[in-house]
Design brief:
Blueprint (H helix, E strand, L loop, with lengths): L2 H4 L2 H7 L2 H42 L5 H8 L8 H17 L6 H24 L2 H30 L7 H57 L2
Length: about 220
């Protein structure tokens, strides 16, 4: 068997110690889960952004709020995040306005609280799975480093039984240990990039939700006059 065959990635993984193999398997599972959440979150965030743009175009296109509310709450209509915020606020507004003992300010405050609660639910839903990506991105390199340290220790223990330490004797053990670090980085880098990207996109959506709630509150306040 030549050197290139001895140092192939598959051979290095198969020849690694049981602890290093277990760490590699763990990191491979983390990497698989990271990519699963990355694709799932990518579709979810894109869908939320498109639904938000559609809602803003329809809402600011004019029309009666009552009619628009009935359309968005129709069973056939699939509501987006901003639509659910609108529905929560307008439904609370209608309920509180029927109570004659409330001041206009109390009605608006109640509608605003309902929208903020709905907004928080929507942001929490968009934020789901980001904690896993953050953990995978921050912990995976250290787990891989632990596997590398363990593999190097195992390699040097094996050298104690060899009369003369040569490069050919040391290289396979060091190489198989470094594979754990490589797999750790492979799992961490996409998770970190995706986490930063999705966090930025969700923050932008949350800012749009906040702006809509303030503007819609002003609209409701004018209706109370």
């Amino acid at each position: 068997m030549n050197v290139s065959q001895d140092l192939s990635i598959l051979r290095l993984i198969l020849d690694a110690s049981a602890v290093v193999q277990a760490i590699m398997a763990l990191l491979a599972c983390v990497s698989f889960m990271s990519w699963y959440y990355i694709f799932r979150k990518w579709f979810a965030v894109n869908k939320a952004r498109e639904q938000t743009e559609d809602f803003e175009r329809d809402f600011w296109g004019g029309g009666d709020l009552e009619t628009f509310f009935e359309e968005t709450t129709s069973p056939r209509h699939k509501s987006g995040s901003m639509e659910r915020i609108f529905e929560a606020g307008f439904r609370e507004f209608k309920k509180l306005r029927r109570q004659t003992n409330l001041e206009p300010k109390d009605v608006i405050d109640g509608a605003r609280r309902a929208m903020r609660a709905a907004c928080q639910r929507e942001v929490d839903r968009l934020d789901s799975s980001l904690a896993f990506l953050a953990s995978a991105g921050s912990v995976s390199p250290y787990v891989g480093l632990f596997g590398t340290v363990w593999g190097i220790m195992h390699a040097f223990r094996g050298l104690s039984n060899v009369g003369q330490a040569t490069l050919s004797a040391v290289a396979p053990g060091i190489a198989e240990a470094l594979v754990a670090t490589a797999i750790g980085l492979f799992a961490a880098i996409p998770a970190v990039v995706a986490y930063n990207r999705f966090s930025h996109e969700i923050d932008r959506l949350a800012a749009r939700f906040e702006s809509f709630m303030e503007e819609f509150s002003n609209i409701l306040q004018r209706q109370m006059r």
